[in-house]
Amino acid sequence: MPIWHLQISGFLGDNVAGNCQVMGKIRDQRNHTRQGWKCVESMGYDIERFVGYVNEGLLCSICRDVLEDPLQAPCEHAFCTACIHGWLVHHSNCPEDRQVIDVSVLRPLYRYMKNDLNRLQLHCKNREYGCEMVCSLESIDRHERECEYSQIPCSNAGCTVQIERRNLDGHLAVCEYRSRECPNGCGYTILSAEDTQHNCVAELRTELELLRSEMICRVEEAKHEMESRLDSQRRHMVQKESVLQNEIEELKNPLPYVRGQFNIVTPSLEELLYCSELILAFQSQMSRVMSDVRSLMAAERQHRQELEQAELEKRELMELLRGLQKDCRLSTAEGSRKTANFRPLARLESAKRKPREVTVI
Questions:
Q1: Is residue 126 located within the same domain as residue 158?
Q2: Which of 52, 194, 212, 240 has a Cα at 20 to 30 A from 69?
Q3: Is residue 336 part of a domain?
Q4: Cα 247–252–253 angle (5° rounding)?
Q5: SS3 category, 351
Q6: Cα separation of 177 and 165, whole Å?
Q7: Are 134 and 84 part of one and the same domain?
Q8: What distance in Å separates the CA atoms of residue 245 and residue 249, rounded to the nearest whole number?
Q9: SS3 sequence, 247-289?
Q10: SS3 helix, strand, coil % of the chain, rounded to 5?
Q11: Closest listed residue to residue 148, CA positions, set 135, 167, 162
Q12: Any idea where the RING-type domain is (predicted)?
């Protein structure tokens, strides 16, 4: 059975008195552990902040406070992350059952234990300053970040006062380290009480010197930038001038240029003429081939018609032969046999006299 169930069965009493005794034992054990464990800076949530009973299975086995950012060992003992990491710096075993463990085998808490932990109700850490908020452990961090009773430092430089968040605006309005402009109208920002006796004329002169030096720097930067641009434009113009001079020299002697261009174009024209002749010859050959193909297709159609006609005549002859055989079987008398032989032979002779012409290609 998991340790979680054993702890529940061992510490959930049937009456309030039993629960109080358990809480007293846990508190004593926590105080004893804290006296001997000083190397961990950030540990769990103080159990005294929680409302109602807290099961021992949700307590860190090292600091004995309620688990904060919990991890679980293979032996199912749970610890705060900071506590177990600090423990494993000097030890290599579980602080409860002494089984060998290291950081790599630590795993997150079981989901059902994590859900039970998140549902615990506790007071805000600013309860001593007047905050009466009680919320779940899951949302306590969000509340404490926005709590109006939390102590925050003054935002003015040099001020070391810790003030409640709700009173910060009032403090900033009267803080002696607040920044404000000189009442004499020089525009100087007063940051401390010593600055109230400043020399307005000296400050104005200093400001004027700063502005003058800043203006001089800007003018020098603009001057250097313009000089660099002019140099690049000058180099570009020189290059363009050389290109134009070359083109002018070429235009002064057009004949060699034209002759050179003509010599370049002439081979291309000859190739084009040769290609056109090849195309014309190919077209004539294609026309002849197409005419031959059409002739062959006409002859093929005629041949098919003749074959169909011959097939029809063949079927007629076969019908005549079947009729002849039938008549021969049915004749029993000699006189009737002569009559029967005469009629099919006459039909056969008439069929033979039909003209048939078959053309074979």
A1: no
A2: 52
A3: yes
A4: 105
A5: helix
A6: 18
A7: yes
A8: 6
A9: HHHHHHCHHHHHHHHHHHHHHHHHHHHHHHHHHHHHHHHHHHH
A10: 65, 10, 25
A11: 167
A12: 60-98
Domain assignment present for 175: yes
What are 260-308's pLDDT values in tens digits?
777 777 777 788 888 888 888 888 888 888 888 888 898 888 988 999 9
Residue 345 main-chain phi, psi, to 5 deg:
-65, -35
Q: Confidence class of residue 330 from pLDDT cuts 50, 70 and 90?
A: confident
Instruction: Report the C-alpha gap between 94 and 60 in whole angstroms.
Output: 12
Judge whether residue 322 has pLDDT over 80: yes
Same domain (yes/no): 167, 93: no
C-alpha 123/C-alpha 69 separation (Å) is 18
Residue 6 confidence class, pLDDT cut points 50, 70, 90: very low
Compute the distance between CA of residue 99 and CA of residue 115 in angstroms, rounded to an integer: 27
d(CA 200, CA 205): 9
d(CA 345, CA 229): 120
CA 92, distance to chain mean position in Å, is: 42
User: Residue 327 has what pLDDT?
Assistant: 80
Closest Cα to residue 302, out of 360, 256, 347? 360
Task: Inform me whether the pLDDT recorded for 245 exceeds 50.
Answer: yes
Q: What is the mean pLDDT of residues 11-19?
A: 39
H or E segment at 136?
strand 134-136
In a shared domain, residues 121 and 173: no
Residues 167 and 284 in one domain: no
Please count the other Cβ atoms lying within 10 Å of the Cβ belonging to residue 262.
10
The residue with tokens 């003429």 is 273
Question: Within a domain: residue 20?
Answer: yes
CA distance linking residue 120 with residue 50, whole number of Å? 7
Same domain, 19 and 60: yes
Tokens linked to 27: 């508190």
The total number of structural domains that make up the chain: 3
Q: Tell which of 119, 142, 165 closes a domain.
A: 142
Q: Are residues 75 and 166 in the same domain?
A: no
The pLDDT of residue 361 is: 35
Q: What is the mean pLDDT of residues 56-68?
A: 90
Q: Which amino acid is at 330?
A: L
Extract the tokens encoding 355: 């003209």
Strand partners, 50: 122
Range of the domain at 134: 3-142
